[in-house]
Every structure is written in structure tokens, then in C-alpha cells.
Design goal:
Keywords: Coiled coil, Membrane, Transmembrane, Transmembrane helix. This is ABC-type phosphate transport system, auxiliary component. Residues 181-236 form a coiled coil. The chain crosses the membrane at residues 12-34. The structure is a single chain. By secondary structure, the protein is α+β, with helices and mostly antiparallel strands. Among the domains are: 46-123, no CATH class; 142-263. Helices cover 46% and strands 25% of the residues. It contains seven helices and 13 strands. It has helices spanning 2-6, 9-38, 73-78, 101-104, 155-200, 206-237, 270-286; strands at 46-51, 60-72, 90-97, 108-112, 116-120, 125-130, 135-145, 148-149, 240-245, 251-255, 259-263, 289-290, 295-296. Strands 6, 7, 8, 9, 10 and 11 form a six-stranded antiparallel β-sheet that branches. A hairpin with an 8-residue loop joins strand 1 (46-51) and strand 2 (60-72).
């Protein structure tokens, strides 16, 4: 035994075990972070909360339930919350994401469970992921095409069919704007620098002037052609809109060009939820940030080494 200790083998095994434990701990932490982070992409149920009768009539709140928290009576009273009389010394408080930022003014609100008379998950509650103003919740009240209402028995299916068409038009418009037009602008700049170089060298004679003028006119013609095509795509993108009825019963018109995705989380099977989760993770890894880096994906930042 003493000779085995003197050989140094125990320290080798101890070092190997320490490294293995450290790696397992690191992998565990990464898996924990990944699991907690990717829960964000899972389509959570959307609730409709019916509040207790008020003087103004029935009140509904629609949104995702983000957190349940037990709060003491004293904390709520210190915060200025009016509580019902009774002996209860603690209350359950809900943190709800209500979305519809442009009309609600904030993404989240809190409710006390004692103020809620019922919680339901209607199958026709619609969730919209938008380019701006965050998520929207409500009921699909109709579809518009060139300002005229669409008729049909399945507006939800029509919505799902039109969203990929709008996305394709958006990609075409982005390619024209950031690839084709950018290339022409770059050619304009090269032509300008070439002209200045000839001027400095006193070589800008009539022949060079005519050549540069003809090339500039050709670039202008190509640019106008692309601008016309871009305007046509923009008209097609703005042609369709949906009508969304919010929790207050008000109907909002939302252009489909502002909608990135739409789904009914309360009416999805496990397979549909998994497919939605996969698509959302893919978009997070490949899309560019938007809304001042508060929404969208992490591309191309994900390609930059830390």
C-alpha cells in the first residue's frame, strides 16, 4: 500500500476524478440553463381570467400566466392594495403577460386570486408574434384583403396560408433592398471615386466624361427598376390584414406584414407544440435582433467569438 502511494497513482486517479466531476458539474449547469431558457419557446397556455363583478360590469383579462406568488396581507396593504375583509393573512398573486403593448401600455399586470372568479383556456385564443410592440393576444375577428373582408368558413386556415406568402414577399423585398440596391450604390460610389481620380490626374477628358455619364445613367435606370419592383412588393405586403378582438372587446386592425407567426396554444397537440418549439428555437438562432435587441434572434452575434 505504501509503495502504491509513493508511486503517485492515487494522485493521478484523484486528479482524474476531480476533472470528471468538474466536467459533469459544468455539463449539468449548461443543461439546466438550456432547459430553463428553451422553456421560453414552448407554447404556453393562454388564460382568460374572469374577474369578480364590478360596478363597471364584467371584466376579463387575457394572457399567459408567468408566475404564482404568495404575498402576505401586510405587504399588500403597505403597497396600497385594497383587500377584502377577513382573516386571511396571505394571498396568491398572479403575474400575467397581457401583451397588446400599444393599447395596454405595458406587457404585464398582476391579479390577486381572490379577485378572479374563473380561469379558462378557450381553444380559439390566438397568439401573434409581431415585428414590433411585442406579443398580441385575442380572438380572430376577421381577415381583410385590400380593405375588404374575406368570407369563408375557416379564417384560421386562411391566416396560416397567407403568413408564409407574406414572409416570402418580405424576403424578396429584403434581398432587393440590402443586396441588389446595395450593390448598385456600391457601384455608384466606385464610379464617383474613379471620376475624382481622373480629375486629380487631369485625365477626365470628353471621352471619359461620356463613358462615366453613360454608366451612371445605366445604374440609375437599374435602380429605378428595382425601386419600382420594391414598391410593388410593399403594396402586396400591405394588402392583407387581420382583425383581432382583444380582452376589452375592441377590434384592432393588424397588417399581416407585421405578423411573424400566429398560433392557438390551447388547441395544439403535443406534436404541434414540439414542432412550434423547434421552429422558434431555429428562428432565435438564425434571425437578427429587433426592437432594440429586446426581441428577435441572436444572429449574427452568435457567430462572433466571446
Amino acid at each position: 500500500m505504501r509503495s502504491w502511494v509513493k508511486s503517485g497513482s492515487p494522485w493521478i486517479w484523484l486528479t482524474a476524478a476531480s476533472v470528471a466531476i468538474s466536467l459533469l458539474a459544468l455539463i449539468g449547469i449548461l443543461l439546466l440553463l438550456a432547459g430553463q431558457g428553451t422553456r421560453y419557446f414552448w407554447p404556453s397556455p393562454v388564460y382568460q381570467f374572469e374577474l369578480n363583478q364590478t360596478a363597471a360590469g364584467p371584466v376579463s383579462v387575457v394572457g399567459e400566466l408567468y408566475q404564482r406568488q404568495t404575498i402576505s396581507r401586510q405587504q399588500l396593504q403597505d403597497a396600497g392594495v385594497v383587500l377584502p375583509p377577513g382573516e386571511a393573512q396571505s394571498f396568491i398573486r398572479y403575474l400575467i403577460k397581457v401583451g397588446n403593448r400599444e393599447s395596454e401600455g405595458q406587457d404585464f399586470r398582476t391579479l390577486l386570486a381572490s379577485d378572479v372568479s374563473s380561469m379558462t383556456t378557450p381553444r380559439d385564443l390566438l397568439v401573434l408574434e409581431r415585428n414590433s410592440n411585442g406579443t398580441a393576444y385575442g380572438y380572430l375577428a376577421g381577415l381583410l384583403e385590400d380593405g375588404q373582408p374575406l368570407t369563408g368558413s375557416d379564417l384560421s386556415q386562411a391566416l396560416q396560408q397567407r403568413l408564409p406568402q407574406i414572409a416570402a414577399l418580405t424576403r424578396q423585398a429584403r434581398d432587393i433592398q440590402f443586396r441588389d440596391m446595395a450593390r448598385i450604390n456600391e457601384q455608384f460610389e466606385h464610379l464617383r471615386l474613379h471620376e475624382k481620380s481622373l480629375q486629380r490626374e487631369n485625365k477626365l477628358d470628353a471621352r471619359w466624361q461620356a463613358s462615366i455619364r453613360a454608366e451612371r445613367q445605366e445604374l440609375q435606370r437599374q435602380y429605378r427598376q428595382l425601386a419600382g419592383k420594391l414598391q410593388g412588393l410593399e403594396r402586396d405586403r400591405q394588402r392583407d390584414a387581420l382583425l383581432l378582438r382583444d380582452m376589452h372587446g375592441q377590434v384592432h386592425t393588424i397588417p399581416l406584414s407585421q405578423v411573424r407567426d400566429a398560433w392557438y396554444p390551447n388547441d395544439m397537440s403535443s406534436g404541434q407544440k414540439l414542432a412550434h418549439w423547434t421552429k422558434q428555437v431555429q428562428k432565435f438562432l438564425t434571425d437578427s435582433p429587433r426592437e432594440a435587441n429586446t426581441e428577435g434572434g441572436v444572429f449574427p452575434r452568435s457567430l462572433v467569438p466571446c
